[in-house]
Amino acid sequence: MALPVPRIGLLPSGARDAITDVEGVTVGHATLDEGEVQTGVTVVRPHGGDPYRQRVPAGFAVLNGFGKSVGLVQVEELGVLETPIALTNTFSVPAVAAAQIRHCVAVNPECGRTLPTVNPLVFECNDGYLNDIQRMAVTEADYLRAWSGAGKVFAQGAIGAGRGMSSFGLKGGVGSASRCLTIGATPFTVGALVLANYGRPEQLAVAGDAWGPRLADALGALDAGPEKGSIIMLLATDAPLDARQLRRLALRAGAGLARTGSVFGHGSGDIALAFSTAYTLPQRADAPMPAVALLHDALLDPLFQAAADSTEQAILHALWRAQTVTGRDGHVRRALRDVLPLPTN
Questions:
Q1: pLDDT digits over 86-131, tens only?
Q2: 268 catalytic, yes or no?
Q3: Of 4, 44, 180, 201, whose CB count within 10 A is highest?
Q4: Which of 166, 167, 268, 276 is flagged as catalytic?
Q5: Is 157 helix (H, G, I), strand (E, B) or coil?
Q6: pTM for this one?
């Protein structure tokens, strides 16, 4: 019988223990599982409306910048999201960005004419060990399939953008978690979603226990070489924060990542982005701006705790829920449960 995933921290989880416990957030996947092609797209929608018209505040932190994302420059400057967040493989970033632009133009025909251009936001990890990344197999239709299929309940593990990803010499992928907290008398939720594609086998730590030596022994010399992976960490919250505060929240995802054994290696792209669903900001200058009572900075510690714990938990969910995958040139990444007997205490 499969053992439960170790529980991180003392804060309670939301009903789904997923990023979709934050009101309005939905997630969808499109998975390509076709022999040499093991890849896909994952889409995180911040609310059910048009994010180009009703933007959400956001901030990000780059822990190590070995990555090829699109859209971060404008997020840094303006502090808002204008599209859903898309995750995919490195060589599919242009195709997915183009799909986001076309989708926005279809919904907003004056985008780029009487209205401003749209800022697509696509994050990536390199799944080239399992996926024939040179085929650039992801299409606009795949993005739209992930977008249209987004819901509150979604699969995790070797699914969507996580299909070809690897972690600690094992099968990685998509994982998610949430934590609930109270500031004063007001309840809030922080949800995390990760695309985990990082880590050396000997580095793995699970809930504070060093699993790395056993894992390295089990895998042998299979994965000798330097760290060349990446992880994308997304945080959503219903707490009323501005872009500066959300950048600070995003940075705390790095605490959860470090607990799993990561040292943010030279070849790793480790990027965290946080957004708030507490309010939206209009695209048009003639629309009224919201009057928002932001949380005081001195009250943010519970949110920081929730960000670290939910990120660490999401990484464990990605490892636990992935299955063994065979891909390009017969390459195999085995699931954690297929490599190590999981401890019973």
A1: 999 999 999 999 999 999 999 999 999 999 999 999 999 999 999 9
A2: yes
A3: 44
A4: 268
A5: strand
A6: 0.97
